[in-house]
Model the fold of this input.
Amino acid sequence: MELETENPTFECYLGNLDPVWCPGCGDFSVLGAFIEAARRLRLPNHQIALVSGIGCSSRFPFFVKAYGFHGVHGRALPIAQGVKLSNPELTVVVAAGDGDGLAIGGGHLPHVSRNNPDITYLLFNNSIYGLTKGQSSPTSPTNLATKTAPYGLMGESMNPAFLALAYGATFVARGAAIKREHLSDLIEQGIRHRGFSFIEILTSCSSFNTKHLAITKVLQRMAPLETCPEDDLEALRLASDTRHIHLGVFRNVKRPTLNEQEEHIRQVSQKTGPVAVGSLLQAFA
Done:
């Protein structure tokens, strides 16, 4: 799966299977944005590992010429973290939906954020469960009537970018499928970043969520971030703004990656030697 040219084309990254998303689905645009980012970075196919869970967006690995791991529901992040630890040379990218990533898989986000593995997390946010035919998701608005909430959703909806900022992810951004060139640039920045990159991607479900995510209304609320906020409080304020949908990078900071932390511990353990089992048992007595 080596690249055959130093100037790879879009087609170099296309898999053998055609995407099976519904006509008008925003996931097509996200796929294109990712491939454009990979092409500009000249990523060798054999050094890309795509990991996903369950959902429409989680079909992503099937459509890219790269290594892919289709995991169980909600477990893409810990799988990807393990892949990066075992093979640091790989460019590891996770594709997950708002249901897969924030419902059953929501408990992994804070721990992966604090561990800071060098992986890129693409969270497709269409505020609905698309693959299972239109149930409410953690990001569905309270006034959205669905098959599982015909009178509206109880409780507040989650804000993915805000959560990633609060959990300490070292790179946090928000893009939109309808703005493909901008999204491709964010994905490229996320892959270049050394550490955990979280990119919320506002995308559309053409079958089950056309009313809430009407393109004209969403476009009117979008506002580009000209520069990355200088402090976390400003980043959190912008990410949680209910009047505008701010697109861009909210945080981009450096911190030791999980692989670097592991190497440090390995070096320390080689100097101090192994810990005796007896002393460990005595410590917990």
Remarks:
- The chain has one domain: 10-283.
- The radius of gyration is 20 Å.
- Strands lie at 48-52, 67-70, 91-97, 119-125, 171-176, 197-202, 222-224, 245-252.
